[in-house]
Amino acid sequence: MATKLTTRSRLAYRPRWLRMVLRYLVVGVASLFAIFPLYWIFVSSLLTTHSAFDSVPHFLPDWDWSNYARAWSLAPWMQYFANSVFIASCTVVLALVTSLLAGYAFGTMKFPGRNILFLAILGLIMIPAEATLIPSYLIVSTLGWIDTYQAQIIPFAVSISGIFLLRQFFLSLPPSLWEAAQLDGCTRFGYLMRIAAPLARPALTVVALQVFIGSWNAFLWPYLVTSSDALRPVEVGLQAFLTADGTDPTGLAAAAAFTTLPVLVIFLVAQRQFIEGISAGSTRG
Amino acid sequence: MEQNVPLSVAGMAKERRPFVWRLRKWVSTGQAYLYLLPVFVILGLFAYAPSAFVFYMSLFKWNFLVHGNQPFIGLANYDFLLHDPNFWQALQVTLFYVAISVPIQLFFSLFLALLLLSGIRAKAFWRLAIFSPFIMPLVSTTFIWFWMFDYYHGLFNGILHLFHLPPVNWLGDPRWTLISIIFYTTWKSAGFNIVMFLAGLGNISPALAEAARVDGANTWQVFRYITWPLLKPITLVVLLLSTIEAFKMFQPVFLFVGPIGGPLNAARTLGLYLFSQAFSNNPHDGLGAAISVILFLLVFTISVAQLSLTQRNLAVTHQY
């Protein structure tokens, strides 16, 4: 055992600088691999058609902005963007209200069935939405919601991770705060609105961002329940645009670029909140 | 206060107090259900009801295009699936996808998370870069990958060409279709797992590893005997989430190669099969519901198995 140990550690003992170089190399290659397709969307969107069809890949853009004008004129993008903004904003507002109320109840109140109800919500992680797609579609069409905004908003007005995050937050509030508020004549609802919710602003920001991006990026459900351009969000419009004409890759790349740009900007501005949201869910879950 | 109150009044107050007190307690307890009402109304309508209804639908020869009564056919949908080669192929494709993509994801994300914590500078920058694909929309990223996979003008074959290697028909060759999609999904979701692992690793006290190093342990031994056992709860959560994700995967397949799952249905997973059965010009929604039930039972069984494993492991780690 002792000899084995020494040979092993001798093998592992490469010079320190070499080890660091190797680490930077691996992490650098992985990062490059991760962001390269995003870079490639923007390069392809700025190529001339001639270089897009070249047998040798062009790694630098030709700065041909006409692709954007062409792609923009071929579909009702303004309508799509307006729809996406409206749907995502409504979903965020509703999801914040429902998560706040439920998280507050789970985090600060004692009532019979609390744990069972909470488990009933968490357990939904194990039911893939794909497996309930058919009856969900049936329910939405029975309600007469096919091709409406509410079909794209109401089913997403509950965020399981949002309830979870806010519950964690309210559990961490000191009970003395509630006792003090009670002495000052505060009701439970008043305490939530005046004290607890403002304190929960960081957690609410995380939930709002997650729900917004989730709603903006949703594809399959809006694809199923919408049929007219007047109600379609950007992602479904983009998919229809991409499948309609496959002979214009630079135009398609331009459309992919200007539909991805808002997501990219929001992510770069708020990346810390996105990453914190996931970390918080993992360590306490 | 009470000492100043006459005896009789104090007695009355004592009798009344339990009722008022009970009422207030009941109101404050009952309030909780009011706060939970919106969540459960929405979940009831769009999560619990569909989950229950999918079992019911699977017993009918259901068709969305037919209005009125749907004929009850008992277990005939399940019997049909048992003898349906397409179903068995879809099951095989799904299991293959899970068996390949989940270990790859777990390995790469744990490896990169460990590297990021091994004293590298600008950690936040690398993390941001690696995490970014997870946030990006499905449609535009599958589009650019589709274009990179292109046989004649794609980037991958361009690179193979530079090295004088023969081109690969990434999405068109049934042997490669699913593998190409694994490339994409690994790229797309590795960032999420890395962030989970980083959070888990951040909770392990560095003092433990330092103590082991003082005792002469090398990098591998520190990982094997300290990091790995302590990280196990997080590893199991990541394993659970990525397994569920892998079982239900079909949107990338749909966007890459369409509703039939590419040449020879090489990438038609259970999710895609149920989708194409339920939403076509000649829909078999009862059959789709039966496939949904099977998918649901598969995911549920494996989740419960992994969760009970987590419980046991948590019990073990709590002993220390």
Which helices and strands, and how do they pair?
The complex is a heterodimer of chains A (285) and B (320).
Chain A: H1 2-12, H2 16-45, H3 49-52, H4 66-73, H5 77-108, H6 114-122, H7 133-142, H8 150-153, H9 160-172, H10 175-183, H11 188-199, H12 201-217, H13 220-225, H14 234-244, H15 249-269, H16 271-284
Helix pairs in contact in A: 2-15, 4-15, 5-9, 5-12, 9-12, 9-16, 12-16, 14-15
Chain B: H1 7-57, H2 76-82, H3 85-116, H4 123-135, H5 138-149, H6 155-162, H7 174-202, H8 206-214, H9 219-247, H10 251-257, H11 270-278, H12 285-319
Structure description:
The complex is a heterodimer of chains A (285) and B (320). Chain A has 16 helices and no strands. Chain A has helices at 2-12, 16-45, 49-52, 66-73, 77-108, 114-122, 133-142, 150-153, 160-172, 175-183, 188-199, 201-217, 220-225, 234-244, 249-269, 271-284. In chain A, helix 2 (16-45) crosses helix 15 (249-269). Chain B contains twelve helices and no strands. The longest helix of chain B is centred in the first third of the chain and has 51 residues, at 7-57. In chain B, helix 5 (138-149) crosses helix 10 (251-257), helix 8 runs antiparallel to helix 9 and helix 9 (219-247) runs antiparallel to helix 12 (285-319). Residues 1-13 of chain B have low confidence and may be disordered. Chain B folds into two domains: 2-46; 76-319, Orthogonal Bundle (MetI-like fold), CATH 1.10.3720. Chains A and B meet through helix 1, helix 2, helix 5, helix 6 and helix 7 of A and helix 1, helix 3, helix 4, helix 5 and helix 6 of B.
Keywords:
heterodimer, A: 285 residues, mainly alpha, MetI-like fold, 16 helices, globular, disordered N terminus, B: 320 residues, 12 helices
Could you name the CATH class of the largest domain in chain B?
Mainly Alpha
Q: Structural class of chain B, please?
A: mainly alpha
CATH-assigned homologous superfamily of the largest domain in chain B? MetI-like
- Roughly how many Å is the radius of gyration of chain A? 25 Å
Q: Please give the share of residues in helix of chain B.
A: over 70%
CA-based gyration radius of chain B: 28 Å
- If classified by CATH, what would the architecture of the largest domain in chain A be? Orthogonal Bundle
Largest interface: A-B, 95 and 99 residues
In whole angstroms, the N-to-C terminal distance of chain A is 39 Å
For the secondary structure, the number of strands of chain A is 0
Structural domain count of chain B: 2
Poorly predicted parts of chain A: 1-11
Number of helices of chain B: 12
State which percent range the strand residues of chain B make up: under 5%
Spatial gap, N to C terminus of chain B: 52 Å
* H and E string of chain A: HHHHHHHHHHHHHHHH
By CATH, the architecture of the largest domain in chain B is named: Orthogonal Bundle
On the 0 to 100 scale, the average pLDDT of chain B is 88
Number of strands of chain B: 0
Provide the CATH top-level class of the largest domain in chain A: Mainly Alpha
**CATH homology superfamily name of the largest domain in chain A:** MetI-like
